[in-house]
Amino acid sequence: MLYDLTRWVKLVTVRDSRRMNETTQLRRTHEAFFRRERRSIPLVRMFVRAALPDWACPALMDEGLRHDVLLCVSELATNALVHGVPPGRGFRIHLIRAGDVLRIEVHDSGDGRVERVADAGPDAEGGRGLRVVAELADAWGVGERNPGKSVWCEFAVPAIKFVESAPQAHSLR
Fold first, then answer.
1. pLDDT tens, 80-134?
2. How far apart are CA 147 and CA 167, in angstroms?
3. What is the gyration radius of the CA atoms in the chain, in angstroms?
4. How far is it, in rounded angstroms, from Cα 21 to Cα 133?
5. How far is 148 from 129, CA to CA, in rounded Å?
6. CB atoms within 10 A of CB 135
7. Contact, 88 vs 36, CB < 8 A?
8. Predicted TM-score (pTM) of this structure
9. Is the pLDDT higher at 164 or at 97?
């Protein structure tokens, strides 16, 4: 299950339609759990791609920003899969909209060690993921968890472009 729309959309009846704008709120967070499997990475991208339109934010519909967000979440999820998740466990993705910031957090259940951002040689097959995140995101970092860690990145999105309610999206007609 990617996620269920019934969790965050409050249903109003036709009789209550005058209150639609007051009672229908868009969700501020999305989260999902993924297994320690290679096929989880495309599922993470599908989850994020499906979650972004829920905020009805024109800035997040910008193709360039959307690709940056998807690339960063792919890199963070891949790092969690390769370096942070022990066998038999998984990782969790959190998307958080707070004011004018979109924050992506990837929580793993590993030993909590953070791989440093290294200079990958020209022939190296890996070692560039966090450098890509550092270049594309407005901020990024690592937080402690028990067990594991949380690696996050943030994208600035003007608050005025977030829509708090979208009556046209939830019309009863």
1. 988 888 888 899 999 998 878 899 999 988 777 766 666 666 665 666 788 899 9
2. 41
3. 18
4. 37
5. 19
6. 11
7. yes
8. 0.72
9. 97
Beta-bridge partners for 90? 35
Structure confidence by residue, pLDDT tens digits, 37-77: 889 999 999 999 988 887 766 666 678 888 999 999 999 99
Q: Which residue has the tokens 């499906």?
A: 50
By the 8 A CB rule, do 44 and 78 touch? no
- Cβ pair 89, 148 in contact under 8 A: no
Is the separation of the CB atoms in 68 and 155 below 8 Å? yes
